[in-house]
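Justification of resources, computational component.

The compute hours requested in this renewal are based largely on the per-chain cost of generating structure records like the one below. Each record pairs the submitted sequence with a full structure-token output. That output is archived, and it is also reused by downstream analysis tasks.
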Amino acid sequence: MARWTIDRPTTQTLDGIVALRVRILGGQVNILPTDDPVTFEVTDIVGEPLLAVQEAGILTIHYEDLTGSGLLERLRPVQLGGYKQVQRRSATVNLRVPRDCPVDVTTMSAPIVVAGVGSRTKLKTASGEVTLDGANGETDIGTVSGNASLRDVSGSLAFNSVSGQLAVAGGRVSSLSAKTVSGSVLADTDVAPAARVRINTVSGEVALRVPADTSASVEIRNAGSSVDSDFGLDRSGGRARTVLSGRIGSGVDPATITINSASNRTALLRRAPETPAAIPEGA
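The structure output for this chain reads:
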């Protein structure tokens, strides 16, 4: 096992890294792919030093006092606020890792930028922005109020937030699970055969755009606002509830699309052939 206490700008190149874990508060985390050995660079350190540990192929960069007690993992900024001046702790962490390296990042307010990874990606933040570009595999994003912007992400995608927005442009999902309280879900993505797409929100707006030739079984439920579809779906329900349902496309292995919203606009949109994917502007 190798350990580094980081209290000044540091750059290290490491062999044999098979997984990455980062736990910081403020600052920035940037992760890019490389075909060379793993490189990590830490700059702009404010407050307590960071600890980097290389053990059994796992590189962990964190605050030892927070990670050991699990405070940062629970992401409760109110509880953390008075703990050893955590609001004054920040660092910029830049990493280059193999494309198939699993990535697990937790921050409080630090934005997270990840590009070109292709394995398991777990990103968790209270109020930081999440940007993910060109990833594939298994992606799990959780925020309290932070927004997530995704481009050309393929594979399985899970998003959970209180008030953060999920915006997706491009890619091809084999599964999509999005849950928010008031955060919007705006997605324009291809849907693989037999994919499962499930979006649940209390008051967030939902706009899902899929290619015109998508084959899927669809059910959209909205309790108190407008529901629209570019596809020919059956409309039912009463004054307090609207349900759109039916089958779109004619593929032999249809996907399943389910959307539930209590009090904001919901739309299932059609992307014309040869039209590039772009984040919908809302319902």
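Residues 1-113 form one domain. The longest strand covers residues 185-201.
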